[in-house]
# Entry
Amino acid sequence: MLFKTLQMVNFRQYKGETKIAFSCDEEKNVTIILGDNTFGKTTLLQAFNWCLYGEALLENPDMLLNFDVASKLLENASTDIEVEVTLIHSGIEYILTRTQKYQKKNGKIIGLNPSIKVSYKEKDGQTESIKDTKIETVINTILPKDLSTYFFFDTERVGTISDRKDLAESVKGLLGLSTLDNSIKHLGTKQNKKTVIGQYYSSMDIDGDSKAKEALNRIQDTQTRREVISTQLDTVVSEINHYENRKEQLDSILRDNQTTAALQKKKENIEGLVVKELAAQEETRRALIADFNADSLPFYSQPLLKQASDFLHEVKVDDKGIKDLTRPTLLDIINRGRCICGCELLEGSEAVNNIKNEMSFVPPESIGNTVRNYRENMRSLGRNSDRIFNGIKTRYEELYRQKVRVQDWNDELIDISDIIQGKENMKRFETELIDVKQRLRDLNAKKERLIREDEVKKSDIERYQKVYDSLVVVSSRNKNFMTYIKYAEEIRDWLIATYKEKETCIREELEEKVNSIFEQMYHGHRRVSIDSKYQVTLLTTIADKEVASGESEGLNRVKNFAFIAGLVALAKNKIISKTGENEFDLSSEPYPLVMDAPFSNADEIHISNISRVLPEVAEQVIMFVMKKDWRYAEPVMSTRVGLKYTLNKLSEQHSVLKGE
Amino acid sequence: MFEHDYTLTGKHATYLKQLAKDKENKNRPYIFDRYIDVYMNAAIFGLLYGRTAEKDNESKDRARVYADAFATERENCTFLYRLAMLIDKTIAVSPEERVDRAFRDDADEKSKDKLAQNMGLFNSYVLGGIEVLYEKFRDSLITTDDCITCAYELMKDFIEEIQGISYEEKLSELMKQL
# Structure
């Protein structure tokens, strides 16, 4: 980086417009501005600071407007101050312009917020503005603010840089490590969504994978079910075909044998009648035998009864006694001595003898009544003889008719059998046809059911497939992302490894460089150490041990000189990084040094040393020097001076610059 | 009288079993439901054919008519007994004695011996009657219908006989029909 020009408008004592061009020559890379104390050297230095960072390390920093101009400002009127720095960085010319409006109100001069504009010239000469939001970043990339106190080196205020800031980031930037660092940060981590890896990671659909698996499982399960359905359908269809064929056969058989079927039916009817008739016959037989058993006694006893009756009639055992007359009755009559007819009954008379004779025909001696009862029984038996036979006869004839009927039917059955003999049993086919029809109904219903289920399963699969396909796209995207992440992580890790290696290497190199410069400037036995925060410590060796030594004002200045000189020296060299077989350019930008009173409090030798070293190590040196000090520096440095200016102080509020 | 079991022996037992229903084999053709039916009908047939028989001991076959059966049919059995006593002429007795046999001997305690003798006579008619029945039905005991036809024919012949229709009359009747 090289400063090309510095232009100021009413900035402090530089009333009106002041423009300084700086030497950008490679050899004569020094620009000297001579001026004594209070002439405005420090203001020049701070003009850089204010332009770049909006800060001016000056007394009364809120009032940067030239006092003359301010005092002439009318009430409510305003005027602007402006500092414009032109610089070349990485081959591009940047123009940084910071302005601030000052207004007079109620007799007071008030500075409004300053504003900055940065533009750069394209290689074709076109000027492009940098967006306001990017300006700070751009400036920090060109020259980190943390290092501004080194680059804009105010020797007399060296105390201001003694605060222990962590300079690591800034130093790395200058030394080219920021490329690596930015790359590492850019690649980032899974957790940081603003980084490459983080973005890849958050772009992945982790949930999608498991959903895809589930969808695939469902597809496979449903497919398996469809295969089962298909097998079942095949079976059902083949069964349907089988039964359809059988149905046709049966229809045909039954059509062709309608007569046979009718005869078959008649035969069955007759067979049914025969069965019934045989049962009836059996009933008749049973009844006939029962009747015979009940009636055979009275029936067959008829002639015997007649014989007995005749015999009894013959012996007259049944006629002799008066019915219900008994022996005691007759004895009573005899004992009364008078008959019921009124006749007197005397012992030995004929009447009494007749009564006594009668006694042998009446009970208990007589069996007349028993015989009478017996005869009555015989009569009741005898009267039923014809009826008994007629009953039996009726039954017998009935049995005969039944037998005839059965015989007739059997004859008919034989005739029918003769006709249908050898022909199929139609009933069996009819039964089978009914069964076949039922089976066909069931099978067709099953077929419909299976087809419906298959359709449902098919649409299920289509649905799952859509889900799966969409997720598979996700999944393949995921795969890509995982690959990207792997790559990015590999690169990041490689960069980190390189960075660590280089960072240590660079710090060591810097330390070496700083020590080398320090040695050239300082004539004593001290060393400089640089820690991880790029803080510089002076070490002195006491009894073979290096210990941090106290720092005088002069020594501190030399130390800082050496540090910044070492830094710019290192930056000036191209840093080549090597990691394994791969090489890449950690290109760093050479830097200028802007120094206010660098030789202050330095002795002759120091001045001479510094003067020799600085133009060597820095790309560009801009020095604000007191005339008295220049005397010592000039012999050493003059050959490197490209541009030289002298400050003249017209008043306390007005300095002018004059080029030589 | 008719108060104890009566055991038939030999051929009479065999015949009685053939004529009566077999409780073990109900399909076997038969004429009479019970042994007592055979017994009572046999008494009639013995009297009708004037046939008596002595107990047969040629085979060891036995058939028993139980007292219970007699109790059920006591009235009929008594009737048949009196009938037999009135009709029987195998033993030469006076008409008065036949009346006594029929009506007095069974009631008079003093006539126990006579009663036993009378029962012997009655049962000899039963055994004779069993022989007659068996002879009548023997050839028909093959099928139930044969038995029925036989019974019917027997009744038919019997009623014609007692109605005094002679064979000649029957023949001329048939001739007229022809």
